Amino acid sequence: MLYLASQSPRRRELLDQIQVAYQTLKVDTDESVHAGESPETYVQRVALQKAQAGFALQPQDCVLGADTAVIYQQQILGKPTDKIDAQRMLQTLSGKTHQVMTAVAIVSKSHQLCQLNTSQVTFRTLTQAEIQAYVATQEPMDKAGSYAVQGLASIFIERIEGSYSGVMGLPLYETAQLLQQIDASLLQWLND
Prior knowledge:
Blueprint: E1 2-4, H1 9-17, E2 23-24, H2 39-57, E3 62-72, E4 75-77, H3 83-93, E5 97-107, E6 112-123, H4 128-136, E7 157-161, H5 164-168, H6 172-182
Parallel strand pairs: 1-2, 1-3
Antiparallel strand pairs: 3-4, 3-5, 5-6, 6-7
């Protein structure tokens, strides 16, 4: 059995898309950035910690964890603390290219694996009115970098170079690779 150590509806939607059977687990992990930690190290550490925390609850099974970070000039833009913080982040991303890093990790009795996906996302220039209107929808308030690629902010995105599913929160290519390494039957439809 596969468990997803996340309550994210986006990650559930993406696993459903590739027809993987799973159950969700609620885990609590410290997502604070350690001093001197690079964005790459940070997202991989947190994804692995989520999978490990889930495995502690279900030690007979496989647990998948993931973490996504929005990075601009090597600075991690996390979830906004309030509307002003969300507006500040969106203003920072306006008219620029940033990175979205998503790490996916899987833990079982015999494996601890992690892969990192990095995509480049370019925003068109946003007006103050657009930023304020978007923040007023509440959509950015629980999203890394203050936006959801699959939501209203999709109209701000001029270009994505990389993985759309990775930007959304679970890179499906890397996820499928890890699942096949752990237990090919988790992607049973491929064998039909």
